[in-house]
Structures are given as C-alpha cells and as structure tokens.
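Fig. S4 source data, part A: sequence.
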Amino acid sequence: MQSVKRKVPFSIVFCEPQVASVGASYDDLDKQMTVTGTVSFETQGRSRVLRQNRGLLHVYAHAKTGKLLGAQGCGPALEHLGHLIAWALQLELSVEDMLKLPFYHPVIEEGLRTALKEANKKCFEARAQTAPELVNAAGC
C-alpha cells in the first residue's frame, strides 16, 4: 500500500471580503527564517474596477530557500487565490517558481503576483546577507 500525502490546510470564510488561510499560519512559522510578501487590494487594478478594493494578503516563504509556506488574508476572490496557493503548496513550489507562471492582465491574481514579488525580493536579500560573495559573483 502506498501512502498518500495529506492535502494542504485551507480554510475560507465566505463573507465580504472573503477571508482565507492556506498552508502554515504565520504564528506557527519560525520568524527568523520566514519572509512575508504583502499586497493591499485597495490600489490593485482589477479590484478597483470591480469596486471590491479592500483587503490585504500576506504570503509566507522560507527566507533562504524561497519555498512557499502559506498565506493568510482577506480580500476579493480569495477563494480562487487560495486554491492557486494550495496547489502551489501541494506541488512544493518556491516563490520564484510561482513567478515563472503566467499572470494575465487585468485579473485579481495580479495582486498575488505583487505579494510574491515582494517575498522573492526579501528571499534574495536574506540569501545575500548569508553569502554576499555568491551574490557579487553572480553580478547582482
């Protein structure tokens, strides 16, 4: 018999705006090894057009590896964003892996991309603090 990997934790509250938690909770993470990427839906393009421009999303990643760990937030279409994040967690994608996937315009998912970009930048900075000679050798 082959064991099956458990599904990613995913909870959602269907209210306005929606509230979701996917993967690891921030409270359960090692703060020294975690970076956070954030997006506000107040200024996010598609959210403004839909007049659903309120809420905030946080994505969490391992500072050194960039592996996506979880996300929490409230905002428009978080049921859909939550599913995308759950799939990425199930596949053990990194923030960088996720940023290689297409984000079309104009969609609310662009907000997720904004949070991922911020987390990716913080991961890059965390790695640079650990091994600056590697960053400089790469020409960054």
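Fig. S4 source data, part B ends here. Helices lie at 45-49, 78-90, 95-99, 109-130, 132-137.
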